[in-house]
Fold this sequence. Notes:
Helices cover about 50% and strands about 10% of the residues of chain A. Chain A is of the alpha+beta class.
Amino acid sequence: MDCKNFQNQFEVDAELEKESKQHLEGCKNCQTFRDEEVHLTRTIQSLPQVETPKDFGFRLNAYISSTEQVKRPLPAIWQIIRYALPTTAAVLIFGFVLINSNLFTNENPNLDQITEENKLELKEESEIETPLKDTNSSETLAVDTESSDQEIIPAGNSFEPVAPIISAERREPEFVTPVAKKEVKIRDAKNVINPAENLQNAEEEDFSGSRNIASTAPEVITPQSTNQNDSVRGESPKTNSVRKVDLINNLGMAVIEGSWKVTSIGKGSRADRAGIKVGDILISINGTSITDRNAQFARINSVRVLRKGKIISINLAN
Amino acid sequence: MALDKYGKSGTGVLESTVSFENLSDHELIDATRNGEKDAFTEIVNRYRNPLTNYLYRMLNDYEEAVDLAQESFVRVYFAIERYHSKYAFSTYIYRIATNLAISEIRKRKRRKLFSLTGLRQAEGNEEKEFQPKDEKPLPEDDLISDEEREVIEKAIAALPEKYRAAIVLREVEGKTYEEIADILELGLGTTKSRISRGRGILRKKIRKYFAR
Lengths: 318, 212
């Protein structure tokens, strides 16, 4: 055994092996090494042992208590509330969004715009046409109805509310109110909130005051066919308005004029085949806005409808 | 609270029921997990002094050693659910203490780096600020002088940390090579090598005293 091996194997308190003993006896260096090692070990072992202070337990207790308080789990009820609150909030928000989306599909803001526009237009018409009715009298009505080649609608003696829906089947206006009573009605209409009534009043006005009586005739009436004397402002739009309704009715569906909401569809009709559904709101015809009073159509080839908040183009060319 | 007894004892001396004294460390850990508060008290009782002594020799700062011993127990307490009995509990807690001590030594090194502004004159005793105030009376030993003990304390405190932990665990705490290897997460050969090198450094420091 050499010195390196001896020193590597040497342990202060371990008993030496026979080989190590033999080497140690003959090696002064290793004897010195052993003595130094023993002395070092004894010196280290003689170092004072430190102990924890008496309040170690108290301090540890306080430390753990304070930390534990921070980490202490919430009571069971708070655990429930902690999860229940966000869940409830999420459900409420979801429900609110859902309800709102339904509202939008039923009461589209575009519809409001349309009805608002119609209201304004009706007011304008009322203001313009009231004097007309005073001056033209019933003669104008007769002339106009003849010139327009429309079916003459007898005037009723009493005013009755007109159903707002013009169905495809019921193509003839059921009555026409007398001019005198109509004026009263028109004035009253300004205070009426229901747009459908307003619109109907406007329609009635058309029938009487400006003689463009709603016709069930499918033929398109060209502007030239109207009396030259009737080129009063607002007349052409009125004519178009009526024609639009007729054209739409001819597709086999009924709409509310003004709001242009489809209220019924005949089975197997063109509208039905094209995929128009009850509740759709017509936005445009042949690419022209349905509120465009100057637009004239010979035939409806395509419409755009608002359905559940989405605009859908429907081709009616077939 | 696991350590309510500390508060009740008034003096802060840990007490534990007799039934826990005969249990092994692992049994005490299991009991602590099951809500036996006195079991953790017994664990603290068993390891508070050796652990503090080890940390004191590592850091050469009594207050710091006590603080880190406390921190070691706190960590054990809050991580008791995660403790695995793969190693002995002593290995586990000494490993925690060693890691805390090494972190502290590194922090000190950084602080020392910033505090060296030239005001401190080299007096051949760079570890002076870490010298503890020995409150305990030293054991009577004619062969070993107080001066020699002081030198060896300083020498241990001045050892590189990788040697220091191994030397203290071996020479002061009397751990086996295997235990040290587990605590320091080293191979057995590396552990022996570090201890041997550390002892060589210390031997040189006290050689002159030995020669007298």
